[in-house]
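Hi Q.,

Before the meeting this afternoon, I wanted you to have the KG4 prediction in hand. No need to reply - just skim if you have a minute. The sequence and ligand are here:
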Amino acid sequence: MLVLGIESSCDETGVALYDTISGLLGHTVHSQVALHAEYGGVVPELASRDHVRHLLPMVSALLSEHGRSVKDINGIAYTQGPGLAGALLVGASVASALGYALSIPVVGVPHLEAHLLSPLLAEPAPAFPFVALLVSGGHTQLMAVKAPGRYELLGETRDDAAGEAFDKTAKLLGLPYPGGPALAQLAETGNATRFRLPRPMLDQDNLDFSFSGLKTAVLTLTQRIGADSKVDCEQDKADIAASFQEAIVDVLTAKCERAIEATAMSQLVVAGGVGANRRLRECIDLAGEKAGFRVFYPPVELCTDNGAMIAYAGAMRIGTGQKGALPFNARPRWELDSLPAIG
Ligand code: KG4
Ligand code: ZN
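Predicted structure with the ligand bound:
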């Protein structure tokens, strides 16, 4: 079965072709970073229009690159949510229109499920059950993944997500959007022990997180040492970036260790954009070696938003016979005598 995957929840347009026998045929991602850069963040209406411009041409290009036509597609998976409403609607309408025209099943995939199943696209892949740390721009969650579709929330952030904390702190330091990767890059040249930033909720006996105080601590620090002015303080900024990253990584690593202990599971999956962070991977790998659990990641290019993870998660659902209803509440039949009175 050949499944077309469509991702359009935020600022990346992603398309993919996943074959349930031979695996991922290919995928492409169009990033809107350049489009939003001058605004310092994602502008939802610009995002929607850009998805409209790119989605269908990307589907056609991917099909022809792999010598396939639309008629070869047996099912379509698209990101149904969460995400920006207008951006999601673009994927939903293209997927539904194509599915309707081709008379094939269309399923709406939860974006977070796709992230946490994405390590199954790597070699070696984890086996169920496993603990998943989902660290993206909008979410920071620890989940017990018992089987596809069976997820138990173990803990989550009470305020900012880890990626959001990276992005906001990057902005404070005057780094360009998207902040997370820019901050991580700057941290590579910094001294992570120069500033001791708080490790929020590390001492609490639960699997929850809180990152908004960390961002405030960085703000106070930059005001104290003047590192937000762009003159002559590159090393200060790099040291703040490294100290901030270390604090987040410390908390994420410790809570993963506790989640593994609490569930008595032996595999940890790390997914979502922040999972691309080199230092996070280094520390979690080390924790796994020490405590005897195995750590799995998606291929690096599938950490951030992409169509491949959507196609994969959708293929699982279509494989079990699931068929999504058309997501639009249009009424092709609407007898006037069935209407309620006005007023
Ligand atoms: O999963 P994702 O692409 O989109 C969401 O579903 O949110 O995650 C995006 C988030 C952003 O906050 C971005 O700054 C962060 O992941 N991110 C990183 C790195 N690469 C992306 N954060 C830290 N280090 C990175 N290398
Ligand atoms: Zn995402």
